[in-house]
Amino acid sequence: MPSEPSKDLEVFPNPQPERDYTIRIDIPEFTCLCPKTGQPDFAELTLEYIPDGFCIELKGLKNYIWSYRNEGAFHEAVTNRMLEDFVAAAQPRFMRLSADFNVRGGIYTCVVVEHRAPHWEPQPPVALPPTPGSS
Fold first, then answer.
1. What is the tens place of the pLDDT at every residue in 56-106?
2. φ, ψ for residue 4 (rounded to 5)?
3. How far is the C-alpha of 117 from the C-alpha of 33, rounded, in Å?
4. Per-position b or e across 38-55, b if 16+ CB within 10 A of its CB
5. Is there a contact between 49 and 96 (Cβ–Cβ < 8 Å)?
6. pTM of this prediction?
């Protein structure tokens, strides 16, 4: 059965809920419409998150992204709405959505939105020594 656009996001149980790990999803073909002109807007989305109990299922994510193709939306509004939907579905410890929109009228727009669960504390970064022989 062929896929169709849908605002329904599917999740599945996190296979390693005891561990903080990052899932990064690159979505290079996001499209929506400019609410002022009706012309298409194109963006590359990067979704990064640390799951808690659930992970986002990719086929459902694809159909969700597809559902915006014929909708008018300002860059700021659509990026924040998507983050809210992703957080509601997956309830992650941390989530960041970056939307890099292609040029329109000589202007590039990048919108970055984040969510942090109230109970979550990030681990300190690990600084590894340089590899011998590297500059």
1. 999 999 999 999 999 999 999 999 999 999 999 999 999 999 999 999 888
2. -140, 155
3. 31
4. eeebebebebbbbbbebb
5. yes
6. 0.90
Residue 107 token pair: 């202007």
Reduce the secondary structure of 92-134 to three states and give it as a string.
CCEEEEEEEEEEECCEEEEEEEEEECCCCCCCCCCCCCCCCCC
38 phi-psi bin (left φ>0, alpha ψ -120 to 50, beta other): left
- So which residues are the catalytic ones? 34, 41
**Domain spanning 24-116, CATH architecture:** 2-Layer Sandwich (3.30)
Nearest Cα to Cα of residue 117 among 45, 29, 53: 53
Q: Which residue has the tokens 């990048």?
A: 110
Q: Where exactly are the structural domains of the chain? A: 24-116
CB 117 within 8 A of CB 95: no
Beta pairing partners, 26: 46
CB environment 124-134: b (16+ within 10 A), e (fewer): eeeeeeeeeee
